[in-house]
Write a structure and sequence with these properties.
The protein is an alpha/beta fold. It is 42% helix and 14% strand. It has a single domain, classed as HUPs (Rossmann fold, 3-Layer(aba) Sandwich), CATH 3.40.50.620. It has a two-stranded parallel ribbon. A two-stranded parallel ribbon has the order 3-4. The two termini are 29 Å apart.
């Protein structure tokens, strides 16, 4: 299995190693084989992920019997999977979505109010809506 881990940092002023470098360190610490591992450590957002990965995908893409490039598994947070899939499709890269990091609970706290949790949930929603609108307005999706 071949994989590419993509990501530098989404912060305006990044500090420390890139997300890809941190993942590379994790792979080494776990004693996993790096023979099929490739890393992209420049991207600051989902759009840059695909721009910097696209040459690697073209180079390492696995061909099917008919010569077609097989789709890649796209593993990312469930909260922004929709936007990620649209960006990859717009760049001509076929993906199979594998959402992770679901933000769920065992039960809904209907009888309580938590300002901090509520604000955090609204922040996630607004982030995705603004991201979708911005990417749509700039032709990225």
């Amino acid at each position: 299995m071949l994989y590419i881990f993509s990501g530098y940092s989404g912060r305006l002023s990044p500090v420390g190693p890139s997300e890809a470098d941190a993942f590379k360190q994790l792979i080494q610490e776990q004693g996993l084989s790096e023979s099929n591992a490739h890393y992209e450590n420049q991207s600051r957002n989902t759009y840059e992920n695909i721009l910097y990965m696209k040459p690697m995908i073209a180079e390492f893409g696995i061909k099917g019997d008919a010569g077609e490039v097989k789709p890649w598994l796209l593993i990312t947070s469930a909260s922004h999977m929709y936007r990620s899939v649209k960006i990859f499709e717009n760049q001509g890269v076929s993906v199979i979505p594998v959402p992770v990091d679901y933000q769920t609970a065992k039960r809904l706290p209907w009888g309580t109010f938590d300002l901090g949790d509520g604000a955090q949930n609204w922040n996630k929603l607004v982030h995705e809506v603004i991201g979708l609108l911005a990417y749509w307005a700039t032709g990225k999706i």
